[in-house]
Amino acid sequence: MFSTLEVGRKIAEFRKQKNMTQMELADALGISYQAVSNWERGNSMPDISKLSELVSVLDCTIDELLGNKKESDLFQNIIKGKEKEYVKEQKISIEDVASAGPALKPSQTESLLETIITENADKVSLKDLVKVAPFVSEEYLMQWIDNLDILLDLNGVTALAPFLSEDSLDRIVEKIETIGDLSHVVGLAPFLSDKTINNLVDMALAKGHIGDCVGLYPFLESDTARKLADQLMKEGNMKEFIKLAPFL
Fold it and tell me: Which of 42, 127, 170, 243 makes the best surface tag, with the fewest CB within 10 Å?
């Protein structure tokens, strides 16, 4: 797996060997000075569409720039339009694509993943989705989430939450008929809508499992918090009421 910091260091090194300023390199590539600065700081990667031009200007090879032969070969085959044949011949893995993701467009990453799944008969797991999540569209993620038997593992879905919209996460939670212990959704709570959290609380109340709601207390609407407080007072459950009190 290549490092964006290391690639950035090499871009700066090759640029200085050519006695070029960041501004001059940016002008030669038709991009902004800020883009070159971000590359050299390791904050971002050159887009694959710029790699050929970049190595030409810097007078180096893609191998020398990336420092990882497997990924540089993958990039070169993508540039040549031969990525499908390369994936099939070299048994490129989902992890390899995740590593290359910072330099690929979402559509390219998704196309590579589909090729891997088709050619190598690889199966997509929740761990795989977490690896590629920053580099694919939300729509693509949701297609796989809908296909995978992971909806009972809400703790696992939490790792994907930063890459999914509130509506998508609500849909995931709503698809589960029996969630059981609400501790499983606490990690998702910051990303869920008020409506879904209210529904979860109502579910716990209907089952008589008010104590399961404790992890949701910081995210409750005022009306829902008061409803819980009234029920706890009615039951004389002062221990739970004390936990809820700071959020009333």
Answer: 127
